[in-house]
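At your convenience, could you comment on the folded chain following this short note?
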Amino acid sequence: MAQNSNDGFPVVIEGGGSLPDYMTAQKTVLDERLVKNGAILFRGFGVVTASDFDAAVASYGEASFTYAESLSNAVRVNVTERVFTANEAPPQTSIFLHHEMAQTPIYPSKLFFFCEIAAEEGGATPICRSDILLEQLRAQHPALVAEFAAKGVRYTNVMPPTDDAGSGQGRSWRSTLNVDSRDAAETRLGSLDYEWQWQADDSLRATTPVLDAIRTLDDGREIFFNQLIAAFRGWQDARNNPSKAISFGDGTPIAADDMAVAITLSDALTYDLQWQAGDVVLLDNFLVMHGRRPFVGKRRVLASLIS
């Protein structure tokens, strides 16, 4: 029988039976706790393989958001139709706090993660409550929050012609847009109101339409829903420069000093989830940001997204 270890952040539920059975029986209660807290860790439920994880996700009973249909920047490898590797970036790469795919017009509502193999050292998943971050950011810098709310934000990313697994933003434009030609890529980008420019090496520079930086949840809570911290701190590779990755929706730059305030606050609010093999985590993608710490040794964390 499952036991609740705490109602802190994250909620920890310790197992002793079948996670799929528990998911099915407790779906309503889990949803209520997720809306309130944003993160639930299931530990000790005997989840060992990707197939076990797939069964647990399926038992949750909500529609999947597949990697193929997403506009994620990350290189990932599907293990089952609904389960894929969290990120193929090298172990030394930090993946900074973000809401999954908030730099695109299409994003999931919830995320599942499963630790198949825990790292020898490091490899924690940092998580941070976005509603609390916004509350503190508004208290310290109300003018900045008002500007985010009024203007929104835009992101610019250069996608390679083929996957670059050495980068946290290395997914090719062919894979990202699910196309096999430039014409098809332009059609897809146009349908999403992107601006784009082809580069000499067949990479593709794409800029999003104006997207929200702040959203309001159904219960009235406001959240700092974006990829600004991750883009500003981490969109660095052979093609991308973090200083050129973000702007306000009107094209004006976001000052580094302003981003520093948000980063300092988020760092103070972050909880590092230290993985144990078999752990499964459910996150509300609107309420909680997540990332990845560098690690040593083999680490295998799988993911599955909910529409």
Summary: The chain has a mean pLDDT of 94.
